Backbone:
């Protein structure tokens, strides 16, 4: 295999027919930077129709090729059809890299088509770097419980396939480039789809669990004594117009649901204000908070690693400090009301 025979970096555009999943736009912006470094063209692969105003968002991320796919088998997501499609497209066009959002669908089909192409697939990188000496992409991510950063490459094979978690990167529109449009029809035989959707019930939407876009996040760590202590953190979050999040051990202890876990295996948050209560500052968690505008940390241990990452650090008992913040905020509100 000659690596130089493989060109262009692709982003799979996940959508529901109305809107693009944010992770696909985030990926377009980040992979644009890799293409600028490598000289590859950035291509977006869109399966089924998408409204023009959504396509415009992709073009504004600096995409230079649109691969528009139609055919049978893609009406609803099917791992059989999508794995087959990307195997066929990659064999035909030979991209250097293919990026897929780390959604339920993306995590399902990306490793499968990578396997069929006999190439490597990495998941959950938090940083992507183009190495101009080797021409490989470095997929960087915390490993060994966050004690080290692992650099994973696909040094011999192509394409380099990666799934990236939503929220890891930012969508940053740049300028539109000339864009080539390629139309492909790839039919997947419907009788070869091995799963049948018998019914569909949308998950009830609970906005308090949607912390990815919160402007203020009050994060409780394992320092919390138990569920009984939660109301004060909820109250603080509500006074600040924000939401409560947590570290993974807090989920493991059954105190808060998984959707509130922030970090490498949870959600990435980008609030204006992030306050950590009883959080040690493990890399696996910190990976999910580094885009916060201001970080405040409260910990009883003055040597806690979280103090290396924060703008303001408070050494003390988390419940006491939280109560103090609440009383100050309430006093401020009372004064303002007079
Ligand atoms: C592959 C992998 C992925 C992971 N992904 C994630 C992830 O996405 N998100 C995540 O959060 N973790 C993740 N982890 C776990 C991570 O490595 C840490 O174990 C975890 O983040 C630690 O959580 P913590 O800070 O709440 O707990 P601890 O490390 O136990 O820290 C508790 C802190 O609370 C302080 N404290 C205790 N009592 C009080 C008090 N009364 N007042 C003030 N401070 C107090 C202590 O001094 C301590 O610093 C992952 C681990 C692995 C291996």
Residues:
């Amino acid at each position: 295999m000659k690596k130089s025979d493989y060109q262009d970096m692709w982003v799979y555009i996940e959508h529901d027919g109305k809107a693009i999943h944010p992770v696909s736009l985030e990926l377009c912006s980040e992979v644009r930077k890799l293409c600028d470094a490598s000289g590859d063209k950035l291509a977006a692969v869109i399966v089924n129709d998408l409204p023009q105003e959504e396509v415009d968002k992709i073009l504004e991320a600096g995409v230079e090729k649109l691969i528009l796919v139609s055919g049978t088998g893609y009406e609803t997501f099917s791992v059989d059809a999508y794995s087959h499609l990307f195997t066929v497209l990659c064999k035909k066009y030979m991209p250097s890299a293919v990026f897929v959002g780390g959604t339920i669908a993306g995590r399902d089909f990306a490793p499968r088509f990578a396997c069929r192409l006999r190439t490597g697939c990495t998941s959950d990188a938090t940083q992507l770097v183009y190495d101009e000496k080797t021409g490989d992409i470095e997929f960087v991510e915390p490993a060994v419980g966050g004690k080290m950063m692992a650099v994973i490459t696909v040094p011999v094979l192509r394409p380099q396939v990666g799934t990236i978690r939503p929220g890891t990167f930012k969508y940053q529109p740049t300028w539109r480039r000339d864009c080539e449009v390629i139309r492909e029809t790839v039919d997947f035989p419907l009788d070869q789809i091995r799963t049948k959707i018998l019914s569909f019930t949308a998950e009830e939407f609970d906005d308090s669990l949607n912390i990815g876009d919160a402007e203020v996040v009050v994060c409780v760590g394992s320092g919390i004594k138990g569920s009984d202590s939660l109301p004060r953190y909820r109250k603080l979050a509500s006074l600040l117009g924000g939401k409560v999040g947590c570290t993974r051990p807090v989920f493991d202890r059954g105190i808060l649901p998984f959707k509130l876990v922030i970090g490498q295996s949870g959600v990435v948050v980008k609030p204006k204000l992030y306050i950590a209560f009883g959080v040690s500052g493990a890399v696996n968690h910190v990976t999910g908070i580094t885009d916060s505008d201001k970080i405040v940390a409260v910990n009883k241990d003055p040597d806690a690693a979280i103090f290396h990452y924060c703008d303001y650090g408070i050494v003390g008992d988390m419940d006491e400090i939280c109560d103090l913040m609440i009383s100050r905020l309430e006093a401020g509100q009372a004064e303002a009301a007079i």
Observations:
- Residues 318-337 form the longest helix (20 residues).
